[in-house]
Amino acid sequence: MKIINNWKFVVLLCLTLGLAPFFPEPHILGKLKWLYGGAVAMKFMDWFDVVLHGFPFVLLLRLIILKLTKKNGV
Known about the structure:
Blueprint: H1 7-18, H2 27-36, H3 44-69
Helix pairs in contact: 1-3, 2-3
């Protein structure tokens, strides 16, 4: 459980798995554009890609929310 709370590890996941492959554009950006365009003709593999490449960013968002909502002194 400690590994998903490690900032360095989560940022590394975002920069590698989250953005790979990098050229011609990061894979997750292409999938998000596709979703924004209505997700026409997306198949199971495309949805799996969204989950796979998006998960590191979900972990990062989770860490940011936990950091911002953490009470002082607790």
